[in-house]
Amino acid sequence: MRARQPDPASHFCKCYPTKLQSSVASLDCVLVCVLWVWKMRRSALRKTGQPNSTASVNSSAADLFRSASSKSSTKELERIDNMFYSYADGSSNMIDPEGIETLCSDLEVDHTDVRILMLAWKMKAEKQGYFTLEEWRKGLKALRADTVNKLKKALPELEKEVRRPLNFVDFYSYAFRYCLTEEKQKSIDIESICELLNIVLGSEYPGQVESFVEYLKTQNDYKVINMDQWMGFYRFCNEISFAGLENYDPELAWPLILDNFVEWVREKRI
Length: 270
Description:
Number of domains: 2
Helix content: 55-70%
CATH class of the largest domain: Mainly Alpha
Number of helices: 13
CATH superfamily of the largest domain: Cullin, PONY binding domain
Distance between the termini: 107 Å
Shape: elongated
Oligomer: single chain
CATH architecture of the largest domain: Orthogonal Bundle
Radius of gyration: 28 Å
Largest sheet: 2 strands, antiparallel
Order of helices and strands: HHHHHHHHHEHHEHH
CATH topology of the largest domain: Recoverin, domain 1
């Protein structure tokens, strides 16, 4: 009578408990384990001639990989949550403006740095100056950042992601919505818009932004800016040669404020 073959996976777990039981074991170690189990079981099954050996081996290996991966994801989420609570206000259970300032200090960036606004975009944060736990989880999981150091290192890549044309249009639109602090608010005061323009577009279109901000601060016709005007200025930056303005055509349905701005720029040159 053939002696019962020991289970290779069981033998491996006994010999190397830390590799399988540690919830933070690297996936490389897990893959080594999976390959070891697969090879040992394939060898054993060839000797016994049992049917469906391939399915059995593949199933065992997949189960082992999924288990280790699940444990790793759980630990990652725990660290992300711990980060959140280190900045969150205990009474509101949210990261408030004070918590964001502390976060900025730890990241060694100014609270007006555009990358903080990009981080809010990545989280899809709804309320200016506040992050909920769910928003925090969404953003940091996407960035694969479960420590402050990892988040700091992720910021340059986040900026590259946002700067892609299609993403930037969404980000630019989000920046306006994020600054709507009151219910049913649809416009933003001129002072805030000037600050926002410098943060969001100042580095990419410095000439256009500087000139438009100067115009906004000197004109008396507009007290607020709406979304259509906000998006129109981004289109202006992308399509109109500056500072020549030769290809600006007021007949192409630009917002009136941009017609007035172009007229103001041309008058300054006379």
